[in-house]
Amino acid sequence: MRPLFVMLVAMWAVRTTVADWNDVPTGSMKPTILEGDRIVVNKMAYDLKIPFTNWQAFEYGQPRRGDVVVVVSPENGQRLVKRVAGVPGDRIELRNHRL
Prior knowledge:
Layout: H1 2-17, E1 19-23, E2 38-42, E3 47-49, E4 56-59, E5 68-72, E6 79-83
Antiparallel strand pairs: 1-2, 3-4, 5-6
């Protein structure tokens, strides 16, 4: 039982710090990513977190325009898959329902 427990804890640590998968909840990324698709998320793209926490150990990047990111909705806690449209300092405008 002990090797199985150690393996499960190690897998959980990898999933919380290195890579995870997410199901896409909405069709907002069509046609690139479809609703219901399962995507693999690189959790080390911008920083390194301490396993089993949200504490950031080291930061080595920021999201750039065009990156696909997973964010947590403040309304209902659902994970959303979105594309970065702007970064700090950019001016974003919506004209005739187009960004």
